## 1
Amino acid sequence: MTLRLITSCTAAVFLVAACSPPAPTAPVATSDKYDVTKMDLKPVPAKVTSERHTGAFAEGASLTMDANLKPLDPSPVKTIRLDTTHKIIEIAPGVKFSAWTFGDHVPGPTVRARVGDKIRFSMTNRSDEPVPGVRLTSAPMMHSMDFHAAMVSPQDKYRSIAPGQTIEFEFTLNYPGVFMYHCGTPMILEHIASGMYGALVVEPREGYPTKVDREYVVIQSEFYAKPDPGKQKVDGAPLYVLDAERLRNSQPTHTVFNGSHNGMVRNPLAAKAGERVRLFVLNVGPSKTSSFHVVGTIFDRVWMDGNPDNQMRGMQTVLLGSSNAAIVEFMIPEDGSYIMVDHHFANASQGAIGLVSTAAKPPAAELEHHNMPATSTPSDPDAIAGKQAFESKCLACHSVGQGKKLGPDLAGVSKRRSEAWLAKWLKSPEEMLKTDADAKAMLKEYNNLPMPNQSLGDAEIKQYIKYFQWIDAQPAGTAKPAAAAH
Ligand SMILES: [Cu+2]
């Protein structure tokens, strides 16, 4: 370029006998809204004290605890507190998992702010406070906070603090986006997989360029759960703990939206026909990507990482790596239940399914081909008891007539297995997997994922078998368990 300019200038000298120096080719863009010279890049040092917060674990007018994202709080300084706790959460009906949290929630509360706002953050490590009802979940430990929305020294702001300590720091939001926050204490993988993450939504300084009727947050994440080797129980149900081996091998047991297996199927997000919906979608991972899709509509706008400068139009699916996010906007064309899924269907079948619905309670029949059960009830008391127990303990991994989940579709199970085989299996799957050829073959088919022993008594086992027999006596496809209500 420079060479060409000089050449043509030299040529011009012969003709005109005068030549001014070439104009600078890249003028400084003074109007660039990402001009770093105008950003606040000098946050004050973090402060660590041994003063302990008490009372609420999460505080701040800019925080939202569920999918219904609150409107922007106009204050230019957002004071937020997110204390870390260890607690039991229910990641699927009956699956009580020993989690680590920000603000006592998984995912942690969503923070909403605007470019130019200051976040004034404080956090007490309260992992040493006892969890009601459980002797021991996991020992108190160091935790930290890493905000992807901040531009700060990680060694200063993101340092780990001990149980009982409090860290405070502040930073200014320089870029719009939907940003992840998470614990950054080693092993980071374990801290994220145990529940320590959330979203910080930063609106552009001038707001979003479109108007919408509904705004919701959808956070996808994986869980890697196994029954507690010490066989602890919570309210009579087995306690689940982090499965470190599955975690290392990226083999989640649950992949969910907003912390709960099929949670937004049980409680759909509301919208009306003709409305425009904006979803703030964050894929936490820690190790899987998400192919986020909504059945029945097309994303009119996709803003990658939540920044309207990164716009795509007319997208069917948006691919999100670990900690990537997007704002997606779409119309609800007509009455119906629009199904949010991770279109990596192996992930969807682990619970990454939700609904945006024009009906408060969508009629179950409409959803059949999407793994959503309808109801029908046996009359035999054992079979009834079996059905109820099945709905609360087994649906996380099994369907009846809706295909494989983590475990096999149990439609027809009483025909393909003898009563004695089922009784032995339910009593001790681990024993059967050692001795029985059919069980071994099944295990292979299910990626060597053994069914956890459900600690069932003989009476219960009889009830399950009675229920399976009742199902298989019904016309195909009519007997389905109801999703457990809770
Ligand atoms: Cu942590």
## 2
Amino acid sequence: MTWFDLTLEARDGSRHVVRYNPHTSECEGLSLPFSPGKFVAVPRVAKDRPLGKSRAPRILKIQLGLSCNYACAYCNQAVQIGDATVSKLADVEAFLAGLNGWIEGAPERIELWGGEPFLYWAKIKRLVPALAARFPTAAFSIITNGSLLDREKIDFIAQYDIAVGISHDGPGQYLRGPDPLDDPGKRRWIVALLAERPDKTGFNALLTRQHHDLRALKAWFAEEVGPDIFVGLEGVVNVYDAATALGTGRFEPAELNSLTRSIFEALVEDPNAFGLGERINEFYSSIQRRRPIEALGQKCGMDSPDAIAVDLRGNVMTCQNTGAKGGHKIGHVAEFDAIALDTATHFAFREECMSCPVVQLCKGSCMFLEGEFFKQSCANEFAFNFGVMMAAVWHLTGMVVVGVSKSIKISNPPQTLSAEC
Ligand SMILES: C[S@@+](CC[C@H](N)C(=O)[O-])C[C@H]1O[C@@H](n2cnc3c(N)ncnc32)[C@H](O)[C@@H]1O
Ligand code: SF4
Ligand code: SF4
């Protein structure tokens, strides 16, 4: 059993211990009412234990292509671009005509992905009305760099009630490329979309080695766009290529500490800062309901048979960020039963995740990363999620987590097995 002792420090300097088991979500020392939930074990994917996909997916991700008008320093798709299929408008017709052959029921969510999705405007214009007619209950969403909006697109977005996330790193935007907010012609449409659809539009920022100060991030958006605009976090940078490993994704140990502190402080000030309140609540609920680790899928959800990423030629990929001409092609909708997700590793097969105190929050980082890239991404995710956990504990106890150590829970007091991790 994996128990951790969290050492908490009160304002008066006194120390207290909370015991937490991320495998069973048992926790001793936090006042959360116990209300057991019902859970089912999720299937766990590995290269030698591939998983198929459901013909009735809850989430349908359509990759329009990986072309982009930006070249962000950390782009997780950069190494995949050569592997992306290039499709024509005619492929949209074939894709739509072929839908009946493989899909059953209606997805809850349909996500349109690039590259930069609005580079594929003609395809979006053909695809969305047809999908909306075919799946009237499905909710649409698009993640964009925000540089290609105009009146026609905003009207279309409103007509089909498309939720839009604009990726923008505030003070760190220069790592992504030009700032569309600096260009009056582009800014105008971003501002218009935010004003016209405030509940369905927001910014998403990614935290990097250079920019992970949430106070600075908040101040930047308040100053540049206004204090009431929703700014969420895409998270912390994961590492997909050597340039990111040496650059935006390589936090020094002191920088990892400041990332944790920054998340903690932002959430102490505002328990829902950057929309992270959801994560705190999920953590509380996991403890209250005793969510077992067996019920946890990967963070991105793409290990689930219920989520499928396809391109317009019907290829099925590991996820929307990968190209179908390379190793991430896991099948084709025309041979649906042969689809095999054999490119990913559920965190249950990673030793570090199975002995990690924040696994219920992190859910294993990216499922297809390996080696040094995984290690670096894991370090970044740990620092990020530990900040969330600290804030969750602080809001219940008013105390700061100052240490975590593994323990064996035998009797009171616990025996510490290893030094702080
Ligand atoms: C790959 S982009 C594609 C959509 C669009 N071009 C955009 O930038 O919004 C989707 C999201 O992935 C995020 N992203 C890119 N590289 C990443 C990385 N290395 N780690 C974590 N998120 C990343 C981006 O910030 C963006 O929010
Ligand atoms: S993160 Fe988005 S905008 Fe940036 S290069 Fe990648 S696909 Fe393009
Ligand atoms: S922080 Fe690292 S070890 Fe912990 S769950 Fe995430 S990826 Fe796994």
